[in-house]
# Entry
Amino acid sequence: MRVTERARLAVPEGGAPRLDAFLADQLPLSRSRLQVVIKEGGVTVDGAVITRARQTLVAGQVVELGLPAAPTTDLQPEDIPVPVLFIDDQVVVVDKPAGLVVHPAKGHASGTLVNALLHLLAEVDEDQTIGGHAVDPTRPGIVHRLDKGTSGVMAVARTPEAHAHLAQQFADRSADRRYLLLVWGESPGPAGTVDAPLARHPTDRLRFAVREGGRHAVTHWQRLAEARFGIAGDGEGGCISLLRCRLETGRTHQVRVHMAHLGLPLLGDPLYDQRRRRIPAFLRGVMEPVDHQLLHAARLGFDHPVSGQRIDRRSPPPADFIAVAEALGLAEALLCGGRRRRLRAGSDAAPDAGRPPGHKARGGARWGRGPKPAGPVLSRTHPGWGRRRCWRRKRGGSRSRPRTRWWPRRPCR
# Structure
């Protein structure tokens, strides 16, 4: 490790529960970078070398370490078009297209977002890092990541101080991250929360799964709209739901794993939806060019690292996402925030079509009893027809994984 200067810090009254957290609060370096320095033996406490990042500190102890020099890299700027939503001397917010890897990794040595930013910012110094960033030589300035197949808003720090400030906002959950997604199946309600720990899959190292002892992960979801369609030879047909998710935590593949855990895998997800789906004819043309999950980071909000001003940037879904939504009749809900209604796919009928004259709609999810309406629209507030279904638990189930089946219930008035 190449050292530029040494720092000497005194532990204040009250001590500190972790060595790496104490150093991250005092120095303009990320916690992950400091953990590497500690592991390499670059930190001493009262003269003794400490290699445990979880070391507890007591008031009055003196911590010394050598500040690492900015690492050199062989990153090259590349002219890759990336829309910029906000930029100043501290942070840049971009709209990452689907199919673009965020930083160099195994199998992706070039053609990444980092290479595009080096060309965009024209700040390639002798060490070839963004703003002289001293965090990770392969991903300078990257605070959070999006999967290769996920599009949307991303923030990138241009200074070490901005990186530390933004990383703290993501850690304390003050940053606002919202996603739009299309999933197979009907959501279990209008909204909900998935609080399930995530860890590596026990047999497939490319995937993550809900596992006991994994890292804490929380996803809040809300249904914006649903589209039902018929399938030849299938009496029940199919359903695709448009959801909006808000993240409390930012684990790898969090939205994709949590939705698959609910039984709602994302459209086009090659990793978490390996079931052979019977795609209706009207969707085959628009789904054929889609080679990634239909997941879009639509909104990102955070406090500016220097001024403290709230930065809130949004991005519309990409063209392939909108094309699928239009084929399902969900484009209006996708672009305008969503109305909680269900349309038969391919229909342009109004949501009140087939409703008896002079009838007052009932709210909630209660479906009334009566003759089937003439129009093609099915709505949760429609009094015309349908059977209400509910979940009932069978013997042998548990709270986390109930053994259940669909039981019909008599229609409500």
